[in-house]
Amino acid sequence: MNAFSTDTASCENNQVKMPEKSCSGTCSASALNAPEIIHVAADTDSVRCDGGHGALGHPAVYYRFDEGVDRVICGYCDREFIRSAS
Ligand SMILES: [Zn+2]
């Protein structure tokens, strides 16, 4: 009984008092804020993005690489797609 109620109380305290501090190092919130960079083959004409996993998910969208432009940034999740010559 005691242990259960104590756990509940400390959990609520964490969420209310310092959500950012408790998340900054360990949970995936920080990773969600940092845009991913996706490298695609140099002969790729278009890329498909649906935000991938979890909270960043969004309807699937396709982006074309404009002529002479080797990068595309997803307007939904800020992922950056870069064509690389390798
Ligand atoms: Zn996206």
Basic shape: globular
Using only C-alpha atoms, the radius of gyration works out to 20 Å
| Fraction in helix | 25-40%
Name the CATH homologous superfamily of the largest domain: q5lls5 like domains
Count of DSSP strands: 5
Major sheet: arrangement of strands: 1-5-4
- Count up the domains: 2
The biggest beta sheet is recorded as: 3 strands, mixed
What is the CATH T-level topology of the largest domain? HSP40/DNAj peptide-binding domain
Structural class based on helices, strands and sheet pairing: alpha+beta
- Which CATH top level class of the largest domain fits? Mainly Beta
The low-pLDDT segments are 8-26
Ligand list: zinc ion
Summed up, the helix count is 3
Reported CATH architecture of the largest domain? Sandwich
Give average pLDDT, whole number: 74
What is the helix/strand order?
A: HHHEEEEE
- What proportion of the residues form beta strands (DSSP E)? 15-25%
Distance from first to last alpha carbon:
60 Å
Explained architecture:
A hairpin with a 6-residue loop joins strand 4 (71-73) and strand 5 (80-84). The protein folds into two domains: 1-33, no CATH class; 35-86, HSP40/DNAj peptide-binding domain, CATH 2.60.260.40. By secondary structure, it is α+β, with helices and mostly antiparallel strands. It is built from three helices and five strands. It binds zinc ion. The site of zinc ion (ZN) has 7 residues, from loops.
